[in-house]
Design a protein that fits this description.
This protein is an alpha+beta fold. It has one domain (about 10-135): PH-domain like (Roll), CATH 2.30.29. It contains four helices and seven strands; from the N terminus they run E-H-H-E-E-E-E-H-E-E-H. It has helices at about 25-35, 35-45, 85-90, 115-135, and strands at about 15, 50-55, 55-60, 70-75, 75-85, 95-100, 105-115. The strands form two sheets. Strands 1-2-3-4 form a four-stranded antiparallel β-sheet. A hairpin with a 2-residue loop joins strand 2 (about 50-55) and strand 3 (about 55-60). It is elongated and about 55 Å long.
Length: about 140
């Protein structure tokens, strides 16, 4: 039998969630103008997307009936962008965009998440550095 996996090699969940149902003032206005009918459409859009960020990878899942699963290992992330437009800031949402060296998914977007996006950015950045150190990966910037 193989030995149990060491605790330091286990993945820790950093964030799990979906886009917010009403992420900004524009969506809120649209919900009011359509007397809430737009929220039905938005509900199914949001239910079809989920984000999971662990200490090793970012997993994006899309689709209600047919599912599409995309994954990017954290050590492949090269840059981070935090977007906090005014309408989203007022409703407590934001966007975290991860630029990667992954050929199939060079831009990973966690859009309209209802969380402290700055804190999420800091935890992803720290986990990326830890994952690189664990794997012995160094990023070289050729300019």
């Amino acid at each position: 039998m193989s030995a149990p996996v060491a605790a330091e090699s286990e993945e820790a969940l950093l964030f799990q969630g979906r886009p917010a149902l009403v992420p900004d003032l524009g969506h809120l206005l649209l919900a009011v103008v359509t007397v809430g009918l737009w929220l039905v459409v938005r509900f199914f859009q949001v239910r079809g997307q989920s984000y999971r960020v662990t200490s090793r990878r970012v997993v994006l899942e899309a689709g209600l009936l047919s599912k599409k699963l995309e994954q990017v290992d954290l050590y492949r992330i090269t840059d981070y962008q935090v977007e906090l437009p005014l309408g989203q800031r007022l409703l407590g949402t934001g966007n975290l965009i991860l630029l990667t060296v992954d050929k199939t998914n060079p831009r990973v977007e966690l859009r309209q998440v209802k969380t402290d996006v700055r804190a999420l950015y800091e935890s992803v950045r720290a986990a990326t550095e830890a994952d690189r150190a664990r794997r012995g990966v160094r990023m070289v910037d050729y300019e």
